[in-house]
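Record type: monomer structure entry
Structure origin: computed from sequence
Chain ID: A
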Amino acid sequence: MKGKYSHIVTIEKLELELQKCDFIKDFSNDLLNLIKKTLDPFEDKGYVYDVNQATIVGLYTKLYKHYKLFLRAYNECEYETTILLSRPIYEAFVLMKYLILKGIESQKHYRLVSYRRRYKNLKELEGIDGIGQVMVDKFKYAMNIDGFSLDDFEAENSKKKGRKWDLDGKNFSEIHKEVEISETYSYLYGMLSEIIHSGWGDIRQLHLTHCEGDFFIPKMDFYDNNDTRIIAPIFSMLIEASEEFLTWSERNLEIDSFHEFKRTNELLGQHIFQTYKTNPDKYLFG
C-alpha cells in the first residue's frame, strides 16, 4: 500500500514539496506520531519490561521526548534551543545503539556507573543532618531498585586496570567508534561541545554581533533559524533509532513503516548537499 510520501522519489519532486510551507512540519509530526506508536502500540494495554529491557526502552523514550521538544523549538525558529537539544539526542542515540549491540552485561554496567557521583558523595552526605540524610535515603532506594549493593560500587571504585566508572571502561569517543562512523564524532558531537561548554565559537556566533575590526556588541535577540539543515540529521537519528529498537524488540515487520521516511530524508540530505555545491552563498551567513 502506497503511503503519504511514496510519490517523492527524486530530488526534484522533493523540492516541489519543500515549496509548500507546511511540508517539513507535516513530515516531522508524522514521524513523531509513528515513533509514539512504536513506543506505545496499544491504546488499552502496553508492554512491561524487565530492568535490562527498560534500559533500552528508557533511552528510546528520551529520544521521543527530546525530539518532541526539538520540533516545538524548530517550529518556533528557536535555533539556540534546537542546538542545545541536539547534543543529548545524539548521545542517547549512540548509547542506545551501543547497549543494544553489547547486551545485558553492558546494560547492567551502564546503570551501575551512573551512580559514580552519588557514590563518591555518600560518605560526606552521611555526616550531614537533614538534606544529607534525605539524599542518602534516595541513593539507597534507587540502589535497591536496581539490585546493586555497596560492594558493587566499591568493586568498581577499586579497579586497578582500565577506566573505572566509565561504561565498559570506555570513554564516549571509544563507544562511538563501535556504532557510528568516526567522522560524525567531530562534526556532530564535537561541534556541539562548543554550545554545551560555552566555547568562543558559540559565544561569537550566537551571542555577539561583529561590527568592524575587533569590535562586537551583545546580540540580545535569539538567533532565528529553522533551516532544513538543522532538522535533517535529527530525522536521520530518530529513524535509525526506531529501526534499531524494532529489531531489538523482535518487531521487524513494523520497520517497513519507517521506509518512506528514511528514503524521503535521504533525498532531503541530497538536496542540502546539492545546494552547498551549486549555491554555497545561500549558507554562507546562515
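Annotation 1: The longest helix spans residues 51-75.
Annotation 2: The first strand starts at residue 208 and ends at 210.
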